[in-house]
C-alpha cells in the first residue's frame, strides 16, 4: 500500500518540520527597535516565525514531539484499520481485494509501531535531558497558532467514529445481500459460494472494526494515564490530566 506508506512518512516528516520551526523561534521577546515616520511600528527588517509547539528548551521540544507522535499514531491506526475492514467487507471474496484489505491493516499496524517507538524514544530523551515536569499527555502550546494537539487528535477520532458508523451500516447491508443471494441461488454453487464469502467477510469486517475501536481506547489509556510523571533532574510532581 504505497498510499498508506506515504501517510506514515508524511506524519514523520511533519513532526521533523515542527522541530525545525520550534528551534528557529527566538528564546526571548523581540528587541524594541522603536518607530520612525516611515515605519511607525518599527517592524521593518524583523521577521519572526511563530513556534507552533511553544517550546523554548530542547527537552520540552523533544517531549512534545514525542507525545504528538504517540497520539497521532493512535488515531491514524484506528482510521486505517477501519479502512482495511471496509475493503475486506466489500471484497466479495475477490483474492486481490482481500489481499489489499489485509495489506492496509498490516501497514497500519506497522506504521503505528514505528511512530509509537519514535514517540517513546522522544520521551526517553527528554527524561535523560532532565525534564521533570513534562506531562505524558503532552505539553499545551501557549500563544501559538497551534494551541493544542488534542484538537487534531479529536478531529481524527471523530473521523474514525464516522467510519465505524458507516462500516456498521454497510455490514448490515452486506449481510442482507448475502441472505438475498442465498434465497435466489436456486442451488447454484457459484451463487452459494458468493453468498458465503459475502457473509464471512462482512462478519470479519465487523470484528476488525470493533477490535480497532477497542485497541484505540486501550492504547490511549495506556500511553496517557490519568496521573503520571516523567522523572528526571530534580524530581517532579505528579501531573494530573
TrEMBL record:
<dbReference type="InterPro" id="IPR043993">
    <property type="entry name" value="T4SS_pilin"/>
</dbReference>
<keyword id="KW-1133">Transmembrane helix</keyword>
<protein>
    <recommendedName>
        <fullName>DUF5671 domain-containing protein</fullName>
    </recommendedName>
</protein>
<feature type="transmembrane region" description="Helical">
    <location>
        <begin position="198"/>
        <end position="219"/>
    </location>
</feature>
<dbReference type="Pfam" id="PF18895">
    <property type="entry name" value="T4SS_pilin"/>
</dbReference>
<feature type="signal peptide">
    <location>
        <begin position="1"/>
        <end position="24"/>
    </location>
</feature>
<feature type="transmembrane region" description="Helical">
    <location>
        <begin position="162"/>
        <end position="186"/>
    </location>
</feature>
<feature type="transmembrane region" description="Helical">
    <location>
        <begin position="105"/>
        <end position="129"/>
    </location>
</feature>
<feature type="transmembrane region" description="Helical">
    <location>
        <begin position="60"/>
        <end position="84"/>
    </location>
</feature>
<keyword id="KW-0812">Transmembrane</keyword>
<keyword id="KW-0472">Membrane</keyword>
<keyword id="KW-0732">Signal</keyword>
Amino acid at each position: 500500500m504505497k498510499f498508506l506508506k506515504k501517510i506514515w512518512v508524511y506524519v514523520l516528516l511533519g513532526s521533523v518540520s515542527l522541530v525545525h520551526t520550534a528551534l528557529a523561534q527566538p528564546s526571548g521577546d523581540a528587541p524594541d527597535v522603536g518607530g520612525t515616520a516611515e515605519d511607525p511600528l518599527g517592524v521593518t527588517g524583523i521577521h519572526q516565525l511563530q513556534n507552533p509547539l511553544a517550546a523554548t528548551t530542547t527537552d520540552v521540544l523533544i517531549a512534545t514531539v514525542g507525545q504528538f507522535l504517540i497520539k497521532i499514531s493512535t488515531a491514524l491506526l484506528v482510521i486505517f484499520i477501519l479502512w482495511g475492514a471496509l475493503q475486506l467487507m466489500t471484497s466479495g471474496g475477490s483474492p486481490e481485494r482481500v489481499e489489499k484489505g489485509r495489506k492496509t491493516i498490516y501497514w497500519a499496524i506497522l506504521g503505528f509501531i514505528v511512530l509509537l517507538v519514535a514517540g517513546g524514544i522522544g520521551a526517553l530523551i527528554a527524561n535523560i535531558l532532565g525534564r521533570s515536569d513534562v506531562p505524558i499527555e503532552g505539553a499545551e502550546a501557549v500563544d501559538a497558532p497551534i494551541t493544542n494537539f488534542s484538537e487534531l487528535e479529536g478531529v481524527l477520532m471523530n473521523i474514525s467514529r464516522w467510519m465505524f458508523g458507516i462500516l456498521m451500516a454497510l455490514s448490515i447491508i452486506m449481510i442482507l445481500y448475502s441472505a438475498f443471494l442465498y434465497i435466489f441461488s436456486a442451488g447454484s454453487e457459484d451463487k452459494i459460494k458468493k453468498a458465503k464469502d459475502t457473509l464471512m467477510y462482512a462478519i470479519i469486517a465487523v470484528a476488525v472494526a470493533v477490535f480497532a475501536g477497542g485497541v484505540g481506547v486501550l492504547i490511549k489509556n495506556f500511553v496517557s494515564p490519568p496521573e503520571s510523571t516523567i522523572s528526571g533532574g530534580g524530581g517532579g510532581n505528579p501531573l494530573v490530566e
